[in-house]
Amino acid sequence: MKKNSFMKGNLFFAFFCFFGIISGNAQELLTVEDAVKIALENNYEIKIASNDLKIDKQNVSLANAGIMPSLNGVLTENSSILDTKQTQQDGSIRELDGAKNMNLSYGVALNWTIFDGFRMFARYDQLKELEKLGDAELKLSIFTKVSDVISTYYDLVQQKQQLQALDTAIVISNLRVTTADNRYKIGKASKLEVLNAQVDINTDTTNLLRQKELFANTKILLNELLARDVNTQFDIIAEISIDESLLLPELITLAEKQNPQLQTQIINKRVTELQLKQVKSTRLPIVSISSGYNFTRSESSLGFARQSNGQGLTYGINASVPIFNGGLQNRNERIAKIQVENSKILVEQQTQMLRSQLASAYQTYLTNLQLTKLEAKNEEIARENLDITLAKYKIGTIAPLEFREAQLNYVNAKVRNSNAQYEAKVSEINLKELAGNLPLASF
């Protein structure tokens, strides 16, 4: 009982020192949900992809597809000053130097292509597919960045756990130095034992400082991903929770419906099919109508009509039928068909690649789950071994080297357990990212 109380007191002291060093003065606690929320609001890549999607949405319009008519105001004026000589039918001649002539026309003009072989409708459908493509690219950008944020966050959690382990090692090393010094003073130990204990505590301190440096740099990296001041101070949770309920068949089904990269290829296939439809439409006639309301005025210094005015409606219809263009139509259709075939191949390739990635990632996930249980058990064994070794060391029935070995085994076991939990969490994140199923709403 006394032994366990002593160990618990030292561990409590270690944790107290750790949180005093890392947390500082009541730093903000940043949860993984908060981190994802900030990233979704601030991350530069997500902002750019979001703006690109807004552009795609603006492009989806009947006018941009060529379906709507155009209405324009028109104005034309031509003037001249000429030395003019006219011979009349009766043979008489009329001459005027500097004769002024003016023609003025203004009004509104309507032009409307009412049939172009259904190309305009295929173009409109293509614009809607491009909007879907922009949405899929935005989701891909979001999933990628959210995955980076979550992985980096849990990397910090892992490092915090390792800092705790190293800090505990220093507390134990301090105890060893004190015990060795006391034993030396009463003549039960040599000076060498004290020096070795001091060397080991210096080694442990060096490892702790290196780990603190890595922890601080990873904090900077996370702040960069959140697109905020890289020197923003925050604290994090100290535990890693792992979803152990993932099943490969369910992940494959979700991925085939939701994976942004696969959806991008499927949409690209639809875009190429609509492009082929547009190319084929050029075989058909193009019909357009024009209309307008015009005002005209003309003046002439010489001639039978010195001035003329007019106003009224104008209208007309235009039609053209392609007959021969040197075989370019057949060439364009063949190329468009090949592009459609390539897009189908890319969909099949992406599907196969996705299934392979899921199968490989799932196997890694299962292995890491097993390792978390194994390393947790190893940590318990190492802790028990350290407790026994510490008790023996205090009464002098075990060599300092054996105690140091037990101490290092305990620290290494805690580090391996932390690493195993982190790797399992990363495997879970990778699987959910591939399945297009990162729970953004809950994060």
Automatic annotation (TrEMBL):
Coiled-coil annotated residue ranges, if any: none
Signal sequence segment: 1-26
Pfam families referenced in this protein's UniProt entry, alphabetically: OEP (PF02321)
Entry keyword annotation includes GTP-binding: no
Compartment(s) where it occurs, according to its Swiss-Prot or TrEMBL record: Cell outer membrane
Keywords tagged on the record: Cell outer membrane, Membrane, Signal, Transmembrane, Transmembrane beta strand, Transport
Record PANTHER family: OUTER MEMBRANE PROTEIN TOLC
Family according to the record: Belongs to the outer membrane factor (OMF) (TC 1.B.17) family.
Protein name as catalogued: TolC family protein
Source species of the chain: Flavobacterium qiangtangense
